[in-house]
């Protein structure tokens, strides 16, 4: 397993994550159009039930999203996103002992989600929407900055890189500097290479192979590849057939030093992480 080269204490609102060991983040999409589970958890009771199941299976973070970011997804208004997300965040904060992550780029959702008990902002746009940097700074929450070119609606229209690993690293370093300038301390920052966002299969595979290069940025890495098209393209599998490929990538991500795994299939991923830990702890 890749040794960690940075402080492992991640403040998340009223909780602290110890990233000396990998954590599993369960995905909770409260959207009608997410690529894998759109429409499954729109109702509040269904959302809470699924969150509770993921926590029971070993998730230490729940990532609540109210706007689909799949390729070609339509944007939603801040009001619509807030109406989807806020009641679910409030319910989970009241009922479950878990870090709540806000999968959002919208300043209003960041501010209200923080007020209701969220501990992290997970932004696929790396706080580039107007007002997002200031909103994230004001909340005092941890932030995850993800690499993406363009917007979900156009990100897969012929993405090109001369050196995908170097360019992803440069982008994330630039966004880290923007955070620091806005008053977001380095100890609150997590980085996400953005697998599947503005990247071809070749880009995704190369970036994954050389992921260790991103450790030079000095911050923990979050990896989200669960059920994504890179697995489907590599293995010829439909969305519902991608569990084995996803577990393989999750295990490989841990071996390469990832600290947080964002997944749909929590129980299976937790087993993989625990198995790796058991081997690592052996004499």
Task: Outline the biggest β-sheet.
Answer: 8 strands, parallel
Mean pLDDT: 92
The level of helicity is 25-40%
Pattern of helices and strands: EEEHEHEHEHEHEHEHHEH
Numbering strands along the chain, what is their spatial order in the largest sheet? 8-7-6-5-4-3-10-9
Low-confidence stretches: 33-39
Gross morphology is globular
- Please tell me how large the radius of gyration is: 17 Å
Proportion in β-strands: 15-25%
Distance between the termini: 15 Å
Question: Could you explain how this protein is built, in words?
Answer:
- Mean pLDDT is 92; it is low at 33-39.
- Helix 1 packs across helix 2.
- Strand 3 (23-29), helix 1 (44-56) and strand 4 form a beta-alpha-beta unit.
- The longest helix is centred in the middle third of the chain and has 19 residues, at 164-182.
- It is globular and about 40 Å long.
- The protein has an eight-stranded parallel beta sheet.
- Helix content is 40%, strand content 16%.
- It has helices spanning 44-56, 78-95, 107-116, 132-139, 164-182, 201-209, 229-235, 243-255, 266-281, and strands at 9-12, 15-18, 23-29, 61-65, 99-103, 120-123, 142-146, 189-192, 222-223, 260-263.
- The chain is α/β, with parallel strands linked by helices.
